[in-house]
Amino acid sequence: MHQYLFFIGDFPIRAYGLVLSLSIILATCTAYYFAKQDGRWHQHVPDIGIYCGIAGIIGARLWDVFFFDWGYYQNHLLEIPFVWQGGMAIQGGVVFGAITGYIYTKRHNIDTWAFADIVAAPSLIIGQALGRAANLLNGDAFGRPTGSNFGILYPDTTLAHHVYGNQALWPAEVWEGQLDVVIFVLLLLFRTTNHAKGQTFILYAILYSTARFFLEFLRGDYTTLLWGLKSAQLTSLAVILIGTVLFCWVGAKGERIHTPPKAPRKQ
Asked: pTM of this prediction?
């Protein structure tokens, strides 16, 4: 883990901030690719990428501060804006980014559900996959001790080492990044099927929330909140339940999207 990649003079380039920025760029480029491929909205992607990126960073930070680490930040209010030190909750970033995207699409007469399916869902999940590398390099979003020699050993400059010392920890953030890539592939496969408008984005929310719910059992960076579950798990459960109902309802009542027939081969 390298919290500082290099220095420009005396100014440190933090791995967390750089990789987080790259994840936003990756998500925006992915969004542009799929919008261009679809033939709609690609001219809006740079603008909506900036707006949603800024909103996502703000939302991710506030979500982490108020839902995960308020016990610390209530006594260190001036540190709340220090996003470069880590402490970003993906769920908050997605919520704030989604709200911003909804407002943007409505103001520009863009089909919100179609945009969410074609552009937002795949770009969000692939950006999240790279974003977890930022957590790994920074030594946050870490797992709990494995109780064996298997696991990640964090350097003494990280929060993970401060909490657990030289114990090997579950690679929770690494596995989440890998599962995000799997979800990305599954979404692309689902888009080739006969489905209803909105189902791809809803499926993204369900799949990610399911992965997050189970991986949280391996996380060791914050304590349980209710019924032996952590705040991220409670949020994930709500998304899974509501998302499943919406997925079925949209599938039954929504506008169908048919995959175009393949051109016949020349004999």
From this structure: 0.87
